[in-house]
Amino acid sequence: MASNFPRSPKDEIDGLVYFPRMCDKIRLHARGELPTDYHANLGSGMDLWICQFLGVDYQALAKLVSDGASDEEALAWARRNGVERPDHEFAWWSAFMKTRGFRDDLAERLTQRKEESGFNERNDILTFMDYIDADEGR
């Protein structure tokens, strides 16, 4: 089984951060190419948070993406079937997600993950998105 990392969590579509990464994870998993360490968190963590924000069920979205929907098609489906939100809430969401781990309730967990990964001296890792990119070699 080949293993590939999904796109960066910082990647955006239509001003919405993380969504492209979730779609990549779904596609990689469907093809048997997602690293096994990622399997347990499919549909939880940031995947769950973005689905909750959009007001859609992860499993329904995952089926749509696995069946071949592009990121654009999947987001359009989520907007049709989920919670209607004004543009400024998408901006707030992305800003919130980009700073998770920086002086918030997840800061201690981020410090722990950095220690576990040998990134103690990496002062450039300030958020979980920074950590994910560093952990995946970006």
Description:
Strands 1-2 form a two-stranded antiparallel sheet. The protein has helices at 19-30, 46-54, 58-66, 71-81, 87-98, 107-117, 128-135, and strands at residues 12-13, 16-17. The chain is built from seven helices and two strands, in the order ββααααααα. It folds into two domains: 1-98, no CATH class; 100-138, no CATH class. Helices cover 52% and strands 3% of the residues. The protein is mainly alpha-helical and 138 residues long.
Order of helices and strands: EEHHHHHHH
Rounded to an integer, what's the Rg over CA atoms?
A: 15 Å
Structural class: mainly alpha
Task: Based on Cα principal axes, name the global outline.
Answer: globular
Give the strand tally.
2
Strand content: under 5%
Flag low-confidence runs: none
How would you state the average pLDDT, rounded? 95
Q: How many domains make up the 3D coordinates? A: 2
Q: Fraction of residues in helices? A: 40-55%
N-end to C-end Cα span: 22 Å
Major β-sheet annotation = 2 strands, antiparallel
Physical arrangement of strands within the biggest beta sheet:
1-2
User: How many distinct helices?
Assistant: 7
